[in-house]
Amino acid sequence: MATACMSDPVLAEIVVLLQETYNTPTVILYGSRARGNQTATSDYDIACFGIDCKPVRHAQIHNGAYIDAWIYPQEKLENPDKSLLHIRDGVVITQESTLGDKCLEKINLLYRQGPEPLPQWEIEVKRVWIDKMLDRITNLDTEGQYRRVWLLFELLENYFALRNLWYLGPKESFAWLKDNDLNVYQAFDDALASDYDLERIKRLAFLVKDNPS
Question: Which of 45, 48, 212, 213 is placed for a possible disulfide with 31 were both Cys, Cβ 3.0 to 4.6 Å?
Fold first, then answer.
């Protein structure tokens, strides 16, 4: 087992549990615990690969720690695609031959290449959808409030899509914004404040859809 696993007895137990349950020779730890910036309550984010495995998600609390594991067939390990980008910062815990290392190399190459640019029609659809939602959330009934939350949720992913950047979930995305586009990061912080303010949401929406950097 890798050093990360040997130095963390809980992780070692989790790896044994998953391998015994799913028969997965290759196990990759990713996320904050792989990067080394975890907190005491951070999940154990794990990807497991096995020959006879079907895609399944394993969620469990083990010794007070939350396991969030994805189980994949071997073909996914040998031919990774963008759906595995979230494990690119991973650490191979166990592997068959060097398959885990080669998988991470392919994923890192895919990440550096960037996503396929959106066609112009899809860009326009996203922008019009944002305008439509801004109009709908002026109604403060239950549906309007729901649409407000929906819009705020989608604006983060749309920011990256409209700039031809990978979207890798809220944690990494907000960290990226804080380092690379502090103006938009602050606009999200303002728009997500507990006191509802339509003008703050409109400003964020403008920055996302009309002011690509």
Answer: 45
